[in-house]
Amino acid sequence: MSRAKARSVKARQKHPDFDAEAFLKSAGAARRVATYPKGKVVFSQGHPSDTVMYVQKGGIKISVLSRAGKEAVVAMLGPGDFFGEGALTGQSIRIGTATATMPTTVLVIEKGAMLRLLHDEPTFSARFISYMLARNLRIEADLVDHLFNSSEKRLARTLLLLGRYGDQAGAERKIPKISQETLAEMIGTTRSRVNFFMNKFRDLGFIEYNGGLKINTSLLGVVLHD
């Protein structure tokens, strides 16, 4: 078993939680809470990039549309995740579209307020940097996964990551409802291939789906198998 491969399938590194409620009560008015129903676009590719967002509850899908009109899902985010952080690096427009995958509440932080917070609050700054480093490691692992692994292994790894493998106790992880079309977009294959492997995983006892989706940690064996 490859140690590198084992590391690549483990869920993102844990990072200290950002106390959103405490932040809301802090001085200043350059932040607000926004709620979105399932399917609502939070921001669109090409729109001005002037805020950073933090998921309080629910889920967010980040997708990118190519010039040829092909859409790719690049991230699925949940409570405790930041998105839109490109605004902090001088990114003037959004390079992707953020869509709520379920009823979602996000904390919207103005760019200037976020920069001041990072400058004035060392503890929060350290937590945010830790989060971004963990995200970068995840992105690198995703790239390696797409370059070298089969679609079956990519699907297994994606399901484990969506179930936040390593964060939940017990042998099963629950995943919010997600379509096979979205899974296909995430791993770069067709819906029919996803359907084939999902049925295979179910028959082997690795997953259960009946409305919701449960992931058994035994699915890890698919990813680690050479």
Q: Could you please describe the fold and organization of this structure?
A:
With 226 residues, the protein is of the alpha+beta class. The chain folds into 2 domains: 20-137, Jelly Rolls; 149-224, Winged helix-like DNA-binding domain superfamily/Winged helix DNA-binding domain (Arc Repressor Mutant, subunit A, Orthogonal Bundle), CATH 1.10.10.10. It is built from 8 helices and 11 strands. A 4-stranded antiparallel sheet has the order 1-8-3-6. Strands 2-7-4-5 form a 4-stranded antiparallel sheet. It is globular.
In short:
This protein is α+β, with helices and mostly antiparallel strands.
Which percent bin holds the helix content? Answer: 25-40%
Mean pLDDT, rounded to whole units? 79
Overall 3D shape:
globular
Counted by DSSP, the helix tally is: 8
Kindly provide the radius of gyration, computed on alpha-carbon positions and rounded to a whole number of angstroms: 18 Å
Distance between the termini: 8 Å
CATH architecture name of the largest domain: Sandwich
